[in-house]
Amino acid sequence: MRLAIYIQVPFCQTKCTYCNFHTGVVSPARFTAYVSAVQTEIREYLERFATAGVTLPRSLAAPTVDTVYFGGGTPSLLDPAHLSAILETIRGTFSSAFSEVTLEADPETVDQPKAEAWAAAGINRISFGVQSFSDVELKAAGRMHRRADVYRAVPILRAAGVASISFDLIAGLPHQTLETWQNSLDELIQLGPEHVSIYLLEVDEESRLGSELLRGGTKYSASAVPTDEQMADFYDLARAQLSHAGYEQYEISNFAKPGFASQHNRKYWRREPYLGFGAGAHSFSGTQRWANAHDAANYVQAIASGKVPLEQLEDISEEQALEEELFLGLRQLEGIDLARLERAYGTSLESRFTRLHQNGLVERYGSVVRLAPARLSISNEAFVELMR
Asked: Average pLDDT in the 131-150 region?
C-alpha cells in the first residue's frame, strides 16, 4: 500500500483577510516544541491511534510512504532543520520511497540557504501562495509578500535544484479587475511554474473579509471585491490561457505541465489513504476519517502528556463512501466511471445524472461521466443537484 502523509504547520506571519483556516501568529520560539510533538506523534502513531479507537485496515499494516506534504499555515517559516527532522522521523517510522515531497511556502520566506537545505532534505516541490501579481491586491488581502518577492524567489529555488514549483492564484481579490487578472496570468506564464492552482475567493463568515461581505460592510476592502460573474469570467480566462500555454487541467482548480500533476493531492480526490500529523491535521484510512484538535498549544500539551489529540473520529458508511466517490470523482476532469462504481456499490446511478445531462452540466462518454468543460465555472450547481 502506498501512503500519503500530511504535516500540518499552523503558524503564519500574519492572518490574510480571506483566510478561514485555524492558524495563528506565534513566536518562533514555540516552533521547536511543536516539531518535537509532531515527531512523537509520528513515532507513536500506532499506539495512539489504537487508544483513540482508530482501526487501520490490514492494507495499512506495512505501508510505503511515497508522498509527503507540509501544509499550513506557512511551513516555510520553520527552520530547515525542523523540516529535515520530521522527514527523518517519517523515514525511521515507515518504509519510504519518496517521489514527491511538497512544502508550502510564502515567497518572502525564501532565501538561498533555506532553498539549498530544503533540497538537501528531500523536498522536491514548492507550492507558492502567490495569489496575485498586483501589489495593490496583495496589500488589501493582508499578504506579506509583493510581486518582486516572487521574481526573486523563483531563481533561488531553480538554482537549488527544486524541479517542481506550483503557483496559487485567487480570482476575486479586492480591487481585482480584468486587466490586473490578465496581468497576473501573463506574469505567471512568463515565470513558468510546473503547476498552477486557480481558486475563486470563498465567502466565509470565519474570515474577516468574508464576514464583511456577508454583512455588506466595507472594511477589508469588501466593497472592492469583484462580482460572482466577474470571478467566473476570470476563471474561464485562466483556463483558456493556461491551456494555450501548455498546462493540462486535471481537476477543477488545478493545472499542470505534463508529468507534474500533484501526486499527493490526487490521493485525496481518489480516496486513497493518508495520515495527517500536527494540530488540525486530518486523516483517512478508507473506512474512517479523523482529525486532531486545532489549537497548537493544546496539541503540544496533549502529546507531551501521552494523550490522544483527536478532536473527531467518524466511521464512513457505504452511502457516505459512494457520495464521496461521486463528489471527488467529478472534481477530476477525467470524470467518473459509473460502471465501476455500480459494480463496487451494487446500485444504479443512471438516474442521478439524468437532469445534470439534460441541463448540460455533464457529458457522457460510454460509462464515463464528467463535468462539461464549458460549465466548470458553475460546477457547484452540478454538485448541489447531484447530492439531492
From this structure: 91
Percent of the chain with pLDDT over 70: 95
Burial per residue of 107-125, b for 16 or more beta-carbon CB atoms within 10 angstroms, e otherwise: bbbbeeebbbbbbebbbbb
In this prediction, residue 216 carries a pLDDT of 78
- In angstroms, the Cα distances linking 388 to 72, 318, 353 are 33, 17, 11
pLDDT on residue 207: 67
Whole-angstrom Cα distance, residue 314 to residue 316?
6
Percent of residues, the chain, with pLDDT higher than 90: 76
Exposed, middle or buried: residue 348 (CB in 10 Å: 0-12, 13-18, 19+)? Answer: exposed
Phi/psi for 206 (5° steps) reads: -75, -15
Q: Determine contact, residues 215/160, Cβ cutoff 8 Å.
A: no
State which H helix or E strand residue 301 sits in: helix 296-304
Amino acid 155 reads P
- DSSP class of 94: S
DSSP 8-state symbol, 227: P
**Its pTM surpasses 0.70:** yes
Closest CA to 116 of 152, 84, 148: 84
Does residue 280 have a cis peptide bond before it, meaning omega lies within 30 degrees of 0?
A: no
Residue 262 corresponds to which cell in the numbers above? 500533484
Task: Give every CB contact of residue 351 below 8 A, 6+ residues apart in sequence.
Answer: none
Q: What is the pLDDT of residues 111-120, one digit of tens each?
A: 999 999 999 9
